[in-house]
Amino acid sequence: MNINQRGLEIIRSFEGCKLESYYCPAKILTIGYGHTGQDVKLGMNITIAKANELLKKDLEFFEFGIERLVTSELNENQFSALVSFAFNCGLGNFKSSTLCKKVNANPSDATIKNEFMRWNKGGGQELAGLTRRRNVEAELYFSKV
Fold it and tell me: What string of H, E and C letters represents the secondary structure of the chain?
């Protein structure tokens, strides 16, 4: 399964696109649409084409990860919301989260929204942008296809 347009819009909107490397609020070196990793160096600059290429590769990684970690059947909005979540929080955090456990137990469980909302901190501080993002992801997760 692939992230749908609504999920992609969430990622692009909340990540933004920065063509010069920077430290995100969690103090992680980042470039493009939230791309991180050993290939990102301080002072690095990329083109918009490179940012889109990195985003595509990153999305493939997170799509595969969600497919591997979620054992219940998801619709495209649920899948896309979880890809956006994992893109921002990491697959390891998703794997060990109560969110993952609840999705696997019952993807229609209404308390899943609360689990999205627990992930609104960066560097130990509650961030308004993350609260907005988690709300939008939860809305997508529970919206009809």
Answer: CCCCHHHHHHHHHHHCCEEEEEECCCCCEEEECCEECCCCCCCCECCHHHHHHHHHHHHHHHHHHHHHHCCCCCCHHHHHHHHHHHHHHCHHHHHHCHHHHHHHHCCCCCCHHHHHHCCCEECCEECHHHHHHHHHHHHHHHCCC
**81-132, pLDDT tens digit by residue?**
999 999 999 999 999 999 999 999 999 999 999 999 999 987 788 999 999 9
Look up residue 79 and give its two tokens.
């899948």
**CA 135/CA 118 separation, integer angstroms:** 11
Active-site annotation, residues: 15
The phi, psi pair for 89, rounded to 5°, reads: -100, -20
Q: Are 4 and 24 in contact (CB under 8 A)?
A: no
In the numeric block, which tokens belong to residue 26? 């969690």
The structure tokens listed for 37 are 């990793």
Nearest to 117 by CA among 145, 142, 85: 85
Q: How many CB atoms lie within 10 A of CB 118?
A: 11
Asked if 4 and 77 touch (Cβ cutoff 8 Å), the reply is yes
Indicate whether this model's pTM tops 0.85. yes
